[in-house]
Write a structure and sequence with these properties.
Elements: H1 3-11, H2 25-40, E1 45-46, H3 47-61, H4 68-72, H5 76-81, E2 87-90, H6 105-110, E3 114-117, H7 119-125, H8 128-142, H9 145-155, H10 159-165, H11 183-190, E4 203-204, E5 207-208, E6 211-215, E7 230-234, H12 235-243, E8 246-248, E9 254-256, H13 265-271, H14 290-299
Antiparallel strand pairs: 1-3, 2-3, 4-5, 6-7, 8-9
Helix pairs in contact: 1-8, 2-3, 2-8, 2-9, 8-10
Length: 309
């Protein structure tokens, strides 16, 4: 396997979207395996070892799930279905497990399922530059820059190494995925350099600080670089919006997830945003499109389900 063949496989992961929702299960399993390999020199992991940390990653950075039972075994799907060109999955007796077995916890635990990235993949990942470029490819293709930092911290990858790697692989570069030049400045001007949620408008001299252009439907998920798919947000509320702590109703009122908790007055100030209207953009700009609001509400916002804490 060559480096470009590896990157092509990573860029083309098959994803089973249910009801149109994004499915970052395989990328998150791979990133966790990359972290294990970086720490130990081996990506071998039993399902028993992987279930809790990988399921938690999917719960934290994937769409919400209603069932408590399902939330605890979300690692089963990628553990079974990760492409066999990348992944070798066997039972306790060393017999290969096919991708047609039920993606269920009892079956995987009962068979003592153990997976490992194939030897040619591990050989390539032993090069820190390839590891960094592979991780960056997955992060850029499936998440936002803010979430990328948090995911790296969770799986034990060094974000500084990823930054140095840059975009090493050019073979599958999709020009449509590049952000439109001038998009961020257009959004900030539309909102008069104010956070659309809290009104923060700080500046250092002539330069606004900690005000960012936030996609509502993520750029990595085909969200357009248009003001109707964006908000100007302060750095704090941008992070909370990408994490699903904050959301928006179709009437453009602010939502705060019931799963969010805070004890300090500063933390509780986030709860105080609930029900408040978003600041509107300047008159010649249209507000956020309801289509993008609905996408964020379904795929990012952290809904509370009875007993799901």
């Amino acid at each position: 396997m060559t480096r470009d063949e590896l990157f092509t496989l990573l860029a083309g992961l098959r994803q089973a979207r249910v009801a149109g929702k994004r499915a970052p299960h395989k990328p998150l399993l791979l990133l966790w395996l990359f972290g294990q390999f970086a720490a130990t020199g081996s990506s071998a992991a039993s399902y028993q070892q992987a279930e809790a940390p990988v399921s938690q990653l999917i719960n934290d950075f994937g769409p919400p799930v209603a069932s408590v039972v399902a939330s605890r075994q979300r690692a089963a799907m990628p553990f079974v279905h990760l492409e066999r060109e990348l992944w070798d999955l066997r039972d306790a007796d060393g017999i290969p497990i096919g991708s047609d077995v039920p993606e269920r916890r009892p079956q995987l635990l009962g068979r003592g399922a153990v997976g490992r990235l194939r030897a040619p993949v591990e050989h390539l990942l032993a090069d820190p530059g390839v590891m960094a470029a592979a991780a960056r490819l997955l992060l850029e293709q499936h998440f936002t820059p803010i979430l990328a930092e948090l995911i790296c911290a969770e799986v034990g990858l060094d974000m500084a190494d990823l930054d140095l790697a840059g975009s090493v692989w050019k073979g599958g570069l999709d020009r449509s995925k590049l952000r439109r030049r001038g998009f961020a400045e257009e959004v900030l001007r539309a909102y008069a350099y104010r956070c659309a949620m809290c009104g923060f408008d700080g500046a250092l001299g002539r330069h606004p600080v900690a005000i960012e252009a936030a996609h509502v439907r993520w750029h990595s998920q085909d969200g357009p670089d248009e003001v109707t798919n964006a908000l100007a947000l302060c750095a704090l509320h941008h992070a909370l919006f990408d994490l699903g702590v904050l959301g928006i109703t179709e009437d453009r009122l602010i939502l705060v997830s019931e799963l969010y908790v805070a004890k300090s007055p500063a933390g509780q100030a986030v709860d105080a945003l609930a029900g408040k209207p978003l600041l509107a953009p300047r008159p010649r700009h249209s507000p956020v499109d309801v289509v993008h609001v609905s996408w964020h509400h379904a795929q990012v916002f952290k809904h509370y389900h009875l007993g799901a804490v």
